Amino acid sequence: MKKIGILHGKERSFPEAFIERINSKNIDGIMAEAVRIDKVVQGESSGYAVIIDRISQDVPFYRAYLKNAALCGTAVINNPFWWSADEKFFNNCLSTKMDVPVPKTVILPSHELPTDTTGESFANLAYPMDWESMFSYIGFPAYMKPHAGGGWKSVYKLTDKDDFFAKHAETEQLVMMLQEEIIFDEYYRCYCIGGKYVKIMPYEPRNPHHLRYVADFKPDAARYRLMEDIVLRICKYLGYDFNTVELAIRDGVPYAIDFCNPAPDAELSSVGQENFDWVVEAAATFAIEKAQAQVEGADNLTWGEYIKRSANKQTLYK
Fold first, then answer.
1. Rounded distance between C-alpha atoms, residue 18 and residue 36, angstroms
2. Which of 58, 47, 57 lies closest to 240 in space, CA to CA?
3. How high is the pLDDT of residue 144?
4. Which of 225, 213, 206 is closest to 264 using CA atoms?
5. Same domain as 117, residue 71
6. Residue 51 lies in a domain
7. Residue 237 domain-assigned?
């Protein structure tokens, strides 16, 4: 029997529906359940062919458990090694090499010194930074957000440089990105599962959270294909099996705004019934595919094109 597990936190509707959908298919030799951990011993199998990870970004113990499970042959969705290494600023940097339009972005040193460092730890860092050059490049209004993610936490809209310095002083030890504002005509949040299943969802980030999927944007066929291509290209290079890509349309051009979402919102109360039904079905289908292809003791992780081409010393972006 090959077991498919889901590791999750407070969310309930998606994990429960995911488990129910897999088990309702009655596929011989496949069953799903919530992951159960009572001990973690180095080099010992987790007992799962596949685990969907929805929470290790917040629980380091779970991330260590998943790396050990992957080492022993579990197909972990998403790859815990790449997820540990990835962050949003790198995603933007990679996109500039893939010809995917992204907002102009710079990264900023933390306002406060990291714990256990002093000013002497930063002998290579200019002081003051070349703020005027950065402000000229980005322009105002602008957005400032953590370079490593965190949902909508610690995200600021800035009106001018005085506003920037005041808000940056609130960010403590966070490493922040300063990013061009994209004034968009349309906005989409796009699920991508298994590097092949794509759901493009009209989305309005300016609405209250519970109304963000209440939007009436209607892309024509050409724009839909363009957005689908961008979503697939991004997820192929990053190697995420389960991700969302957010696209803002400005003057007909889709800009990738946020595309490092390896545990994206899938709760029924947030995404609505139609999107919920789609993500449950696509996730269940892909998890079953991964379980059927899983080879005990082998590396069953997905590795992105960036890593694979780097390892093979190939040209990275063509």
1. 16
2. 57
3. 97
4. 213
5. no
6. yes
7. no
Extended strands (E) in the chain: 2-7, 30-34, 50-53, 75-77, 105-108, 142-146, 156-158, 176-180, 186-193, 197-202, 242-250, 253-258
CATH of the domain at 8: 3.40.50
pLDDT tens for 91-141 read 999 999 999 999 999 999 999 999 999 999 999 999 999 999 999 999 999
Tokens of 214: 């209440």
Least Cα distance to 101 among 273, 234, 263 occurs for 234
For residue 171, what are its two tokens? 């960010």
Stretches where the chain sits below pLDDT 50 are none
Same domain, 19 and 65: yes
Backbone angles phi, psi at 229, to 5 degrees: -60, -45
How many CA atoms lie less than 13 Å away from 128 in the CB half-sphere? 6
Determine the structural domain holding residue 41 and report its residue range: 2-79+286-302
Among residues 4, 64, 60, 58, which one has the least CA distance to residue 31?
A: 4
